[in-house]
Description:
The structure holds three protein chains of three kinds. By secondary structure, chain A is mainly alpha-helical. Chain A has helices at about 5-25, 30-60, 70-90, 90-105, 110-135, 140-145.
Amino acid sequence: MTINGNAVISAIMLAIFSAMLIMAAGYPPEARFMPTIVGFAGAILSLVQLWRSLVSNRRVPRTETDRPGWHREVRLLGWFAGFLLAILGVGFLIAAPVMVVGFLVVDQRERPILAGALAAGCLAVLYLVFEVVLELSLYRGLVAQFL
Amino acid sequence: MKRLRRPLAAVLYVIFGAAVLLPSSKVSADDEFFDGKTITYIVATKPGGGYDTYGRLIAKYLEKHLPGARVIVKNVPGAGHIIGTNQLYHAKPDGLTIGSFNTGLIYAQLLKREGIRFDLRQMSWIGKAASEPRVLVVGIDSGIASIQDLQRAADPVRLASSGIGTSSHNETALLGHALGLNVKIIPGYGGTEGEMGIMRGEVAGTLGSYSSLRPFVDNGFGRMVLRVGGDSGAIGSVPTVRDLVSDNDGRAIAALIESQTELGRLTAGPPGIPSDRLALLRGAYEKALSDADLRQQANRLSIPIDPLFGEAVAANVGLALTQPPASVALLASVMNADAATTSVKADLLEVTAKGKRIRFHERGKTVVSKVSGSRTRVFIAGRADDRANLKKGMTCRIKYLAGGDNEARLIDCGD
Amino acid sequence: MSIETDIYLASLIALLGSPMLLALIVAAIPIGMFFGAVPGLGGKLGIALLIPFVFGMEPLHGAVFLVAMHAVVHTGGSIPSILFGIPGTGPDAATVVDGYPMAQKGQAGRALGASLGASGIGGVIGAMALALLLPVLRPVVLSFGPAEFFLLAILGVTFIAALSGDSLVKGLIVGCFGLVLATIGMDPMTGVARFTFGQLFLWEGIDVITAVLALFAIPEMIALGARGGSVSAVSKDIANYGLRDVIEGIFDVGRHWWLTLRTSIIGALVGVVPGLGGEAASWLCYGHAVQSSKTPERFGKGAVEGVIAPETANNSKEGGALLPTLFFGIPGSSGMVLLLGAFVTLGIQPGPQLILYHLDLVWTLVWALVLANVIAVAMFLGIARWVGLLVFVRGGLLVPLIFVFAITGSYLSSGNWKSLIVLFLLGFLGYGLKRFDWPRPPFVIGLVLGGIAEESLHKALAIWGPAFLLRPQSLILLSMVAASIVFYVWRRRTARNAHDD
Lengths: 147, 415, 501
């Protein structure tokens, strides 16, 4: 699958800068000064880069966007999202060991015993170091908040 | 049928018995409601600051004086204490969540700032731990020796504040209005940056709590020219706002800020905590703050303790928040309009309608400015006076809101 | 011998001769390094949490303990930065840019050694610089106001160009993105909540640690997890790993002694001037290293100078920040705010009287700073080789753990679960940037310096009007900014000419 990554990023940046410019227009003069100047510069530069990416792509079709392993990278992105959602859902102390085991066993095909050991170690560190010694409470999750 | 009746009767007896017995057991357990429970003490800042220090100290001694209970501190920082206070306000009012936040939120509530989802009047007040008198400090080399110098200054004097919307900014603006000070407030000096700014000479002074500015003064870098709250015994002979205000607006402002200085390091719970549990909490709080060990610890931490408990605090807060609509409007205009006023020194070209309108030159153009009976402060030869006594030809310093009728805020005329 | 020299030496000898104080320093070092190494904690939290412990101690003991702990925070912070690409503290993000690629090339030991040596020397020079500055301290500190902060921030921003690698346009875009994100939050100058979408947690802006973790740690872990293998692409046998490697790194600091000296002094000066912030020092020095190098294209791919420059700055700035804290009683950095509070609770009253009546205390603290840095090097040398082995561990085992600790770091640093959503979004963006070869350091520079630049500009305008640019200090800085730009252009031109030949 060929994605012109440079063009996509330039387009995203252009969108973000434009959105911020529009929002900044509604602020009083002193407050909108910097966002306007920087946003404007950023938007123009993004446009330039977008143009360049599209043009150069047409001239020399990039084969390296098919870098091998990008499937795996997307899978990893998925796991990252999974870790975050789990922690947001049920909090660090439950989600962390579960996700560690999950990742190691499912994605890395590790032995469950090793996975379990690492997860237990992780939980121990999180609990002992942060909760007990430092007395910093770790997030308990959205679910806990609604109960 | 007969076989069913006995077990059925037994069940009915149990249910009936429970219904009779349980309520009474609840009543007697309320005295020890907190036994075995965990109380969460919310601190509306990140760990490590003044509120966190007070909070953890108080939490520790509350635990000591509530037998069987555990008190844990939870930091809920963000948005200048607003996030933590919102969370506290909406917590379940079962007595198991209490917390501490910046009293300055009173200004935010008065001005109905966005993001506020609480009403301080409704909170269940437990007590307060300290007083925070304010002082206005000017640099030792600033050329300002007294508050009168700020009133009579020809050009606006620059004072530093933390930022628009913060208590330091609001109070500086309010005092400026109450005392007729010719000042320009420069926001953006958070934390101790104000003191550095004074040392560099780019600002002449700043308003802050006595406890935080005291080292600066003791080290010889600045002098106090005004105080709000506190007493002369502790702070020294510095004039207070009360001594200097002469009209109702000024007195209202002084009263508001003074009530703020009284209410430092508050502890409160969400609205609607059952009165018996609140009484338990208040009792424990009072014991905690009277505890000799706590006093000693506080001493070593150099944090002053000057407590007030329960109802007295509630009354104080209610008073501060019940401002007549005129006062609220005054506050809003002072706090918001400060940035928009223009200051000029000019001769009065014309005074019409018994002082209700004046005309003067400003940078080449003529300005006609409305003089309000209630909102414009008029000084002639150093004394507060009536607008009717303004005369053509007087040389005055005029501060007005550009636009519309160019309403004047301050007219200070020489001899 | 003058009286002053006697005091320097006397307090050093007293310090070395006191087993209690030495023990305290030795105890403080691992604690400080721990707070630095775990993302999201940081030196400030360390001080806040240690204050109850130092309560009972004598003032000198407590002060020495805290100073020593705080001095080595960034030394610890460089460890995860190099080994895993996760910055332990905000300022350590600059170390990631070249430190992690070095680890990937199998040179983790050397990078650790360089970082260690740089931290140690930086800390020492920083402390010495502050000692030498004593007589002129006041005028130096007081000459830096909003106008100068603004221009210094702009100078840092021009470094974005140098850090853009091959594509200036991409670097500028990313830099602008950082600058624009820096405006998110409640603007103190106008009271307007900008780009917060009604979210209270954004009033204080985007948390720097969250941004840095999202842009650097997450993409690297995704790449590592997908690629398989270990952090070090080079296997252990070939890498020839051992203590020798680490010592080699320390020697590198000596080899680049001129850079080390310059960045230490720049770091100390940035620390002395209150108001610039910790991240500014390391990025300014990193940018300086890139600009002043004859072969700037090596940076970002594992150039050892890219580790030395920020690490010296990180530690020397602590020495610099201690000065205004002790002498004016005005904290030089946010960490110093807490240290100051701690000193007060210990009964030490910072201020000019310290110079008059307690100069010995001041010198003891300076020496404690120096010793802590030196002893940290020795202590760490012992375990460096084992810590460094982590880069040879299978990446798949590290990835989930690092995900967990990065997310934890973001949560602890910001104090709000909603920051995890920011982590998520920026993490995806960071992955995209890495994937398609867009430079990432300019984003951090924009984010970190944007706030200072804007606020200082508005303050300067409010105080002096546009004429603030005409003050002598401003003109000097303006010429430095211009020089930086000219230098960059000239560099590109000569490189292009060389390329064409």
